[in-house]
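request received
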Amino acid sequence: MNDNQFAQFEIPGMLEVIPGVNELPKVVLTHRSGARAEVYLHGGHVTSWTTPGGEELFFLSRSSYFALDKPIRGGIPVAFPQFGGGPLPQHGIARISDWQPIRTGVRDSGEVMAALQLTADDDTRELWPHRFNLVLEVLLDATRLTVALQVDNVDKAPFDFNAVLHTYFSVGAITRTAVEGLRGVTYQDSLRDDVREVEQRDTIRFDAETDRIYLDAPPHLRVVDETNARVITLDSQDMPDAVVWNPWIAKAQRMPDFGDDEYREMVCVETGIMVTPRTLAPGQHWRGETVFGCEPSS
Ligand code: BG6
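response:
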């Protein structure tokens, strides 16, 4: 990596672009409170978010690949323009593409911002024949991380897309973890032929593989991590669906880039457009965001 390649985006003490694992470049944001976040250009992939006290809030597998043709396992993979399986690679092309920084800055409020972009090129068009701009904007303050996705159709024809923040949270123990906010929401159970049922529980707990898409979920969700006495909050805008996923034992063993026992220390609560793809006409724009927060549990 050429040391000066990203110099125009650096802000002394707050934002730097440095080599990460396997020399893949990553943007490191540091808020004056001491909170930090890291975003790899590979995948436009947030891999770390730490509190001012140094607690890591995102899970990152010790077995993750850090390779150009593979997604990173953990943090926030971006699924676009496809969620799950289909004609494109699983979860689409964004998480296996290289993004570019386009903007960095510090707001008057002190928030540190980095925006990365993925634009259609010969590689993406080979897989998905559309001209698009996809922007990931990351904003960091003392207690919150805001992650926004924006899609522009710069083509001459409409296209449909899914767009998802596939967030992996680090938890002290999955058996002492609860997801709240989904009671009364219809879900599609990916482990039972996509059967649709209504969630009856206030508090979702884990004792087996879980893989559900909640349709039109409320914008506010909570991940209660009892072991670490903390609650992670999610507040989304125009990200209508949510997935709750934990691979549990057998699936963990089948995944080459995930430790056999790591299902114990993570849960995915994903936000975005999973079920009904959005359509953008030429010139149209979409923006969705999730604000992640962390507070001590009462
Ligand atoms: C979740 C899906 O979003 O992603 C699961 O609901 C899937 O079915 C998981 O296993 C991980 O996918 P991948 O491609 O990163 O292994």
